[in-house]
Write a structure and sequence with these properties.
Blueprint: E1 11-14, E2 17-20, H1 22-27, H2 39-80, E3 84-88, E4 91-95, H3 103-108, H4 118-128, H5 147-164, H6 168-184, H7 192-207, H8 214-220, H9 227-241, H10 250-260, H11 265-280, H12 289-303, H13 314-326, H14 334-338
Antiparallel strand pairs: 1-2, 3-4
Helix pairs in contact: 5-6, 5-7, 6-7, 7-9, 10-11, 10-12, 11-12, 12-13
Amino acid sequence: MKLNRPRQPVQMRMNGITKENTYASKHRIKGISKGPITKELRTFRNITNLHNGVLRRQKDETALRKLQKLRDNSSKSVIEGEFIPIQFNNITTILTEETPMESEVVKKRSPQDCEEYGREIDEYIKSIEDQYTVNPNYMSKQKDINTTMRAILVDWLIDVHIRFKLKTETLFITINILDRYLEKEQVKRDYLQLIGVTAVFISSKYEEIYPPELKDFVYITDYAYTKEQILCAEQKVLCTLGFNLNPPTSKRFLQRLSMLYPVPNKALFLAQYLLELSLIESGMLKYEPSVLACSALSVGSELYGGEEIAGCSEECKENMMIMLKEAPNGSLQAVRKKFSTEQFLGVARIELY
């Protein structure tokens, strides 16, 4: 006499975790506990997945409603000019009109701007910028390379930055790594491009979410250097710089200043254009990143009718105006080509008289 074994509840494996299917154990659907996938099993799985998806959707909608309610309450307090209690790690900070963060600025910011710690962030990056500056005359100590070679290399690195669609901050960190290394080590002209591409390799791994692969950097140099050479150069650069890869760049200062001084988009893009032009000119290394950012934003604001930016260097502004006038006739056109596109509102095509 053949005994029928009791049916076992179906075991479903999801994300490596086995869970009991209560629906199958309750209704005991025929033919789904063992054997190949049948029509009933496929239908049952579709129903289960749909049920789980509905539950997840309901939880997500509930969380979104709570978040939207919280945001509505916060924005209402900002508009009415009341005190704004901000909860963060059980610490309540009261923002009033006496703080540097005006209500109009706070409304335009995103949570990633960390407006609760705006003052501390600005003071910190200002206090450490001297640690990452270089001697503007460091190139005179190099025996085999000069400022012209550096300018050509930086122009090529900007092209690489555009080709790989990297972040703007990655470009500024790249040039900072390059200058700090060249200030400390002697480099032959045959290996100058290797140091440049290594700086991009390091900064992209530090700043980007999906950095380019090593083989991409070998390809971009037209196979002038091997993977092993780039990796060896990476170790040497990191050891020389002591793994200090967090410089407060002029782009970072520009971002902070644009929160305090609302200027037109064209003025902001023109300021970024001036900062990237300053990367090529080694003579602009004598200015601190904060001075460069303030001067660039001031020039952009004056040309496009924005607010007056206080505390800028008049000498730096004059040098930026000279760069802006000479840019169309220069031999290095990577930056101008970039900012002539509609993405940056064509600010590089500005005509000065």
